[in-house]
Amino acid sequence: MDNFEFYNPTKILFGKGMIAKLDEQLGKQARVLILYGGSSAEKSGTLAEVRKALGNRSFCEFGGIEANPTYETLMKAVDVVRKEKVDFLLAVGGGSVMDGTKFVAAAVPYQGEPWEILLKQGETVKEALPLGTVVTLPATGSEMNNIAVISRKETGDKLAFSSPHVFPVFSVLDPTRTFSLPARQVANGVADSFVHVMEAYMTLPQDAMVQDRYAEGLLLSLHDIAERITKAPSDDYDLRANLMWVATQALNGLIGAGVKQDWATHAIGHELTAKYGIDHARTLAIVFPAMLKERREQKRAKLLQYATRVLGLTEGTEDERIDAAIARVEAFFEGLDIPVRLSAYEIDQTGIDPIIAQLKEHGMTALGEGADITPEISRKVLERSL
Ligand code: NZQ
Ligand code: ZN
Questions:
Q1: Could you tell me which residue ranges the Fe-containing alcohol dehydrogenase-like C-terminal domain spans (predicted)?
Q2: Which of 9, 19, 111, 250 is the most buried (most CB within 10 A)?
Q3: For residue 286, what pLDDT is reported?
Q4: Where are the domains of the chain?
């Protein structure tokens, strides 16, 4: 196991009715800005519940943060924060609103042009406003990590940054606030969480017993959830609660501590979103099975471990078990009604070149747990997913 530092200060308030506890989390004098997305938080009643929980405290609101939040929109929120002398940011939404809020938190006190935060991947962030979240979409794990992914319309970039200063102080996870999600977003959440676990786990054996068993527990849960969630009623509290908690833990740093991680699928996926506007989770379903096929020798031992311990595949030769495991991964996405091919988005061979060019432009030229996935290998991965 590699050396590691693990730090995660986010307090979790989990369960039905926990939004009412917002009041206790905030100082009496706090000047709060609620940040939210389009219309879903208003329609579902989540915003009303949040406003009520804030009581007589002074607060203002900033709506309109889009899916794949943009720098252009978020800089408007930075202006509001400065003008209204806000000192606490409260994100109400999914990954896009939470990530956008992290960017605003870091951009407000930033010395210099805030886009630099993305260009330097967060290294230049020295401070940030405190933030909390009320989660409405279990998927990204943004509620308990220090990562944000921000897009810029002007340049067509989609870049990530991380900083210890942007961990949420607290996150409220009330599964009932997910009941209003469209089936497509629920499926996206299951798929994104699954790939988050896989990016940490499906690498090479590293004799990390706890990380492996923990990841396998999350994967078993996700297989179980995926099996049931498309048929279950949208108000199945326990199922939504399990999805919410799995999504949070898939990317809160624990399973990735002390092990080499992959993240090549995410790097390629971000470029697919930037170029073609495909939902984040859906890009992962295109890339990840193809990545497993292309990297089956490098990932051989872990593919076999996953086949045995998670899928219970014990019959046949090693190669047959690996084939079966990869087929099960494809079936996992397809069972959620998420396509695993570029052709489903009418992208053919000619659509691959721009993605490779973007990877090069963003320095994504040595990806994966072995830092040996070159743009040429990324091209082969995408060709396998045509
Ligand atoms: O905008 P509104 O009207 O609120 O609608 C949203 C949005 O259209 C809707 N929605 C959210 N909660 C709802 C709801 N609709 C009905 N009922 C509810 N309770 O869902 C749509 C998608 O929301 P979004 O926040 O964009 O989805 P998600 O949570 O999947 O976040 C995706 C973003 O997170 C980034 C992605 O790249 C993408 O930009 N990621 C962030 C990560 C992180 N911070 O660690 C890691 C991930 O790998 C990912 O890259
Ligand atoms: Zn993701």
A1: 188-356
A2: 250
A3: 98
A4: 11-177, 183-384
